[in-house]
Design goal:
286 residues, mainly beta, four-stranded antiparallel sheet, 28 strands, 0% helix
Length: 286
């Protein structure tokens, strides 16, 4: 796909960064109707408020699915080609992780360490030059991975599949559900949230508890301003207080991230931010 062609659709996939003026966006550009072969994925820098300014810093003629950024500024981007694209020290490197059906999610554990999960149940740890990959024979698709440290990482996927990494080995987690799990957020060893199609579970360090979310499809979870915030697509953004969900904003959001002092969300072309008092944003034309 030619990046100069204007008649394309845009899907913002991930937002990371350090502050309102130092953001990174991962976007998929494609011709409609959607064709995986036509996808051009781009990474742009973004200054969001008060003036919206962006600049493309990377592009790949592949379908990239997730991006995360370490505290030191290393970017990790994974793709449906089973590759991880790493931006470190001013240069990009591409590594084939031998996940031929693709990778769905990546979490940056540090400047030299990341975790990613794949469509065939791959759970992959990249630690410097070492790559450790495991998967079960069932090959059930995994959709999300997140951790609070490299010794507290959780991966979740279809049919209620869930695994936890303690720094040495992955252990299967038995959650009381067989629905597709779409997101996870590890705040600490004793506080983890897992969400999906009509389900939400909280780990308190000893047991899993289910929180009422029957009518929601939870696509992303983040922690900001002492509360968990949940992206629920067309149903909007919800906040969790005292194990009860309430609607925070009726807006289409698929991905959330706490960056600097604000909460950021993306969906399709929309980039929005929330400062605790009001929402601000609009569509971004890449």
């Amino acid at each position: 796909m030619n990046n100069n062609v204007e008649d394309h659709a845009t899907s913002l996939v991930s937002i990371t960064g350090e502050s309102n003026r130092q953001l990174h966006l991962l976007a998929n550009l494609y011709h409609e109707p959607f064709d995986a072969e036509s996808v051009l994925s781009v990474v742009v820098t973004l200054s969001h408020k008060p003036d919206v300014k962006w600049k493309k810093i990377y592009s790949s003629e592949t379908w990239c699915t997730s991006m995360d950024q370490s505290k030191g500024g290393t970017l990790y981007v994974v793709s449906m080609e089973g590759e991880v694209h790493i931006f470190r020290g001013g240069a990009w490197t591409v590594i084939d992780l031998e996940a031929p059906d693709g990778l769905n999610s990546v979490w940056a554990a540090g400047d030299n360490e990341s975790f990613t999960v794949g469509l065939n149940g791959e759970r992959i740890r990249i630690n410097g030059d070492q790559i450790d990959s495991v998967k079960d024979e069932s090959g059930v698709r995994l959709n999300a991975v997140h951790g609070s440290s490299s010794s507290n990482v959780m991966a979740v996927g279809d049919e209620g599949q869930a695994y936890r990494f303690d720094g040495e080995v992955w252990t299967k987690v038995d959650l009381p559900t067989n629905v597709n799990l779409l997101c996870v957020h590890c705040l600490s060893d004793e506080c983890i949230l897992v969400g999906g199609a009509g389900v939400l579970f909280r780990w308190d360090g000893e047991a899993w508890f289910e929180i009422e979310a029957e009518d929601l499809t939870i696509t992303n979870i983040t922690y900001w301003n002492e509360h968990f915030y949940l992206a629920c697509g067309r149903d909007g953004v919800f906040v969790l207080r005292d194990d009860e969900l309430s609607l925070e904003k009726e807006v289409l959001i698929y991905r959330l991230n706490a960056i600097g002092d604000n909460l950021f969300g993306v969906a399709n072309r929309l980039v929005a931010q929330y400062d605790g008092e009001g929402w601000w944003g609009g569509d971004l034309d890449l």
